[in-house]
Write a structure and sequence with these properties.
The complex is a heterodimer of chains A (91) and B (233). Chain A is mainly alpha-helical and 91 residues long. Helices cover 47% and strands 7% of the residues of chain A. Chain A is built from four helices and two strands; from the N terminus they run αααβαβ. Chain A has a two-stranded antiparallel sheet with strand order 1-2. Chain B is of the alpha+beta class. Chain B has a six-stranded mixed sheet, sandwiched between helices. In chain B, strand 1 and strand 2 (100-109) form a beta hairpin. In chain B, helix 2 (42-58) crosses helix 4 (69-81). The radius of gyration of chain B is 17 Å and the shape is globular. The chains are: A mainly alpha (91), B alpha+beta (233).
């Protein structure tokens, strides 16, 4: 486990997707935790894999997704909480 | 919403569609004849009856994506057995004559499709972790814009296929009509599909059923080219 928080992951992702969020008319300061990145076209299937890779590389972590509920995968708040709760530092 | 595993119907015997190479048809006819000797029940029968046409209807993209027909078949089997996959066994609507499966289709609304694809991409992510097979991700990059997105108000034909021994007797048209009827009964008036350019007979079938090609996309450096087709009402 790490000391990574849901808020840190969320801050990174909002910044990472800032252009796409603005294009979708979303105020970066008002992104809800139940915002669905896939439904709003911020990411596609490949984009989810890229998102995971980006988060892991940025924070230097590895996340085990074996136990993740797929329905939570593209929800901003749920994804960030899962990452923060299941991250391990890379060796 | 989970679709019934199978629905039974009869097939008109007066239409022609979806030709394929003679040698493949002969081999499949022999296999089907053997299958007719036993009841089609349970896991084994389902896989034997469904995966051949499901594999063919997934191509040429599927074999290319996974790098080889063998690996593509293995992955198709895994996806077929995962209940929340786009290609899950429980999503297949079949057309049978008696115990004999003539073909089938998989359909989903845009919203269902999104839900399935979350599950599939998570499974893919875990596969990549186990195998470190970066070539699949590279091919996903190459084919990123190959298929059009599906809106929530559209009913999408993900796969459709006919057992080779059952071809030439209108089963494909019957399945397509089943798909349209199912969509209408669920309140959809917009229907969408993707078809490979090399499947000319299928393309013509869709045109004859009122679908129009609204765009094409090619995987760079390959001959794989798909039409996005739409029918309204």
């Amino acid at each position: 486990m790490t000391s990574l928080t849901q808020h840190q992951v969320r801050t990174f992702l909002v910044q990472h997707f800032s252009d796409s969020l603005r294009e979708a008319g979303i105020d970066l300061g008002e992104v809800e935790n139940d915002f669905d990145l896939l439904a709003h076209g911020v990411v596609d299937s490949l984009g989810i894999i890229e998102m995971i890779t980006a988060v892991e590389n940025y924070f230097g972590i590895t996340v085990d997704f074996e136990l993740m509920d797929p329905e939570q995968l593209a929800l901003l708040g749920s994804f960030c909480l899962f990452v923060a709760s299941n991250a391990t530092t890379r060796v | 919403m989970r679709l019934p595993a199978h629905s039974e119907s009869t097939v008109p015997a007066n239409a022609d569609f979806l030709n394929r190479p003679r040698e493949a048809a002969v081999a499949d006819r022999a296999a089907t004849t053997a299958a007719e000797a036993r009841p089609v029940e349970g896991l084994e029968g389902g896989i034997d009856d469904i995966l051949p046409w499901l594999h063919e209807s997934s191509n040429p993209y599927w074999d290319w994506l996974w790098g080889s027909p063998g690996q593509a078949w293995v992955q198709l089997t895994h996806w077929f057995e995962r209940p929340n996959s786009e290609l899950a066994r429980g999503r297949v609507r079949s057309l049978r004559r008696g115990r004999r499966v003539l073909g089938g289709y998989i359909a989903a609304s845009g919203q269902q499709l999104r839900s399935c694809r979350k599950a599939d991409v998570l499974a893919l992510m875990n596969y990549l972790r186990r195998t470190s097979d970066e070539s699949v991700v590279a091919r996903m990059h190459m084919s990123r814009s190959l298929f059009a997105s599906v809106a929530d108000n559209a009913f999408y034909l993900s796969r459709i296929g006919v057992a080779s021994a059952a071809r030439g007797r209108g089963a494909g048209r019957h399945l397509l009509d089943m798909f349209i009827r199912e969509g209408r009964s669920r309140g959809y008036a917009r229907f969408q599909l993707d078809v490979s350019e090399d499947k000319l007979s299928a393309f013509q079938l869709y045109l004859s059923a009122g679908f129009k090609s609204v765009g094409t996309s090619t995987i760079p450096g390959t001959s794989i080219r798909y039409h996005s087709m739409v029918r309204s009402s």
